[in-house]
Each structure stands twice: as structure tokens, then as C-alpha cells.
Amino acid sequence: MAGPEIVRGERMLHWEGLSLIMLILGGGLSLLYYSLREFRRNKEVKEFFATLTHELKTPLASLRLQVESLEEDLANTEHSQLVKRLAGDAGRLEIQLENALFLASVGDSKQIHLEVFDLHEVCQMLQSQWPELEVEIPEKSYIRGDTRALEGILKNLIQNSRIHGRATKIKLSATKKNSNIHLCVEDNGTGFSGDNKTLGQLFRRHTAHSGSGVGLYLARNLTEMMHGKIEFESHANQGFKAHLVFKGGI
Predict the structure, then answer these.
(1) What CATH superfamily classification does 114-248 receive?
(2) Would the pTM of this model clear 0.85, i.e. be above it?
């Protein structure tokens, strides 16, 4: 009698083992199915978000140009301060829209197009966007990077200095070391009294009045997508510095 009982016991163990394996496979396939479905949904939302922000860029840029033109026409009038604030708001809105577009493409190396360009020309173009700031730009320096991404980096750094550091002067300097270009962006603002390592963390609010961290987060990620490096340095009442390293051009 012991023989048949052993055989039945072995069969039960085999069926239980097979059932367990089937349950594990079924659970794995279900998890894979829902993961793929969420991946496709997130991709669709991301593409919609990127398309929407891209479509809004053109009318917003046109609005900013018209406001700037209106600001010139109404200079030294009773409405000049109102139009000046409107121009500032339009500029900030444009930067936030660009940040949203960059945020949707973070991690996608296909969005980065490396080429050699003059750093001085990019900085010169940005200089005119903050007439209330004294912006010192570097001489001709050729780097290998993405022009649009570098514009986004510098816009966020300057805006961060203006809004959160209340700076009145921004200095951009570039030096060549070996085959790299070292770019330093520094201001005369109030600086930052916390841990510098926390700067650039997404949605990290250091105080009740600080920003969401999106600007510095994007500056870090866009720099890394261009195969560069960035470090933040700041102390209370001693201004803010961003050190960037890129591959040199010619």
C-alpha cells in the first residue's frame, strides 16, 4: 500500500508545483501587459504634452515681441511700468513653456543635436531679453553642443538669479582648459544658505518662497545630455555660481 500512496503524493506535488508555476507565469504576463499598457499611455500623454507646448511657442513668442514693441512705444509714460511688468510676465511664461517642452524630452538623446557654435553669439542674443539686468558676456568661444539646449540652460540660470536671488548683475565668463570650455555663470544676488548638493533636485522646495526646482533640474539634465558637466555653488549673501564644462569646438 505504501507504493501507491507515494505515487499519489508525488503526483500531488507535481500538480501543486505545476499550478504554482502557472500562477507565477500568469501573474508575470498580467504584470507585463499592464506595464506595457501604462508605457503606451504615458508615451501618448508625453507626445500630446510636447505637441501642445510646441504649438503654443509660436503665438507666445509673437506676444512677447509685441509687448516689447509696446514697451518701447510707451516708454516714459504713465503706462510704462505696467507694460514692463507685462513684458516680464510674458518672458517668464515663455521660459516656463520651454521648460515644459524640455521636461517632456528629458532623457531622449534624439532631441539633442550636437554641433559647433559660438558661445558669444548665444549669450549676446540672451543679453537683450533682460534689459533690467547688467549682463556681462564672454568673448568668442566655440563649443560643441546643442544651441537650443544651451539657450534653455542659460535662460533658467539667469531667471533663477533674477527671481530667487534678486540679482542685478550677471557675469558669464568662458575659459579654455585643454580641449574643454569652462563656462561660469555668476550673479551678485542673495545666494543660497542650504546644502548645494540639493540644488537641481526636481520639486525640491527649500523654503516656502522658493521655486519648484524645475529650472536647475533641467539645466543639469540638458548639460549632461550634451555630454557636459555642471556644478552649483552658492552661499548666503555671496551670490550664486554655476560651473559648466563642455567639449571645445575649434
Answers:
(1) Histidine kinase-like ATPase, C-terminal domain (3.30.565.10)
(2) no
